[in-house]
Amino acid sequence: MIATNDNDDDKTKEESKKERITIVLNEKDLIESFVKGSGNGGQKINKTSNCVDLRHVPTGVRVVCQQTRSLQQNRSIARKIMIEKLDDYYNGDQSKSAIKREIARKKEAKRRKRAREKYGTTNSKEETSIE
């Protein structure tokens, strides 16, 4: 008879959930194209192809970036955004942006709870019954 420890199985499951995949962009997996921009920026934006369209072939994730008038800056920004999106795609709840959202959500809930405790509930039925 072999004795198993259920706690060990739980720990391995938790550890596997906590493992994050480190995202590394391979240029081979990316298709990059440049299109003419639109919006604010005047003639420079309308005449030059400085809007970056970046696609990750294995996942199909697409990023379009035209935050600045400079093509090189847009390429750099597009790659940073692509890494964030791939992090969300592969890591889900363990991605950096998901963790930041969760922290912000908890902060907001804590703030609301403190306000409720300080000022009481804002339910109009309870206020009228007290008066």
TrEMBL record:
It is found in: Mitochondrion. InterPro entries: Mito_Transl_Release_Factor, Pep_chain_release_fac_I, Pep_chain_release_fac_I_sf. Residues 97-131 are annotated as: Disordered. Residues 20-118 form the Prokaryotic-type class I peptide chain release factors domain. GO terms for cellular component: mitochondrion. The keyword Repressor does not apply. GO terms for biological process: mitochondrial translation. One of its GO terms (molecular function) is translation release factor activity. Residues 107-116 have a biased composition (Basic residues). Pfam families: RF-1. SUPFAM superfamilies: Release factor (SSF75620). It comes from the Eukaryota. Belongs to the prokaryotic/mitochondrial release factor family. This is Peptidyl-tRNA hydrolase domain protein. It comes from Gigaspora margarita.
